[in-house]
Amino acid sequence: KQMKMLFNEASSAVELQLYFFPSVFQREITLENPYMLHFPFLNKQQLQVLKERFQAFLNGETQIVADEAFCNAVRSYYEVFLKSDRVARMVHSGGCSASDFRDVFKKNIEKRVRSLPEIDGLSKETVLSSWLAKYDAIYRGEEDLKLFFLSPPFFF
């Protein structure tokens, strides 16, 4: 009986620590540096540069090699999302970050990749990660390609 009581006390102490310490740690991170967990918000000039980079890719003016399916996904993203007035208004109001733009592209290509036929020896996850890497390269632009290969993905 005493052993069972000790076990219950120990397990409740562990449960309390699991609950308490991560929340304290999270609070410390957000109080110390609120920008650590968030990507910077885009402004109108950055949106214009982004549009120009994607247009340059679609015109074949970059050195990024891509198949037709990826080009169609980028064209759709450019025409439907980047050029929309709604996105321009959100950027103008300070409501869009680089991470938001990447998430929209990721959701778009996930739907497209699921509809593609299975290719022998190439998983759909591999295709997704390859397309996201190419997106990151387009997003950063030609002048930043060296940094792209030296730094972790999607840190703008």
TrEMBL record:
<dbReference type="InterPro" id="IPR033227">
    <property type="entry name" value="CAPS"/>
</dbReference>
<dbReference type="GO" id="GO:0016079">
    <property type="term" value="P:synaptic vesicle exocytosis"/>
</dbReference>
<dbReference type="GO" id="GO:0098978">
    <property type="term" value="C:glutamatergic synapse"/>
</dbReference>
<dbReference type="GO" id="GO:0045921">
    <property type="term" value="P:positive regulation of exocytosis"/>
</dbReference>
<protein>
    <recommendedName>
        <fullName>Calcium dependent secretion activator 2</fullName>
    </recommendedName>
</protein>
<dbReference type="GO" id="GO:1990504">
    <property type="term" value="P:dense core granule exocytosis"/>
</dbReference>
<dbReference type="GO" id="GO:0098793">
    <property type="term" value="C:presynapse"/>
</dbReference>
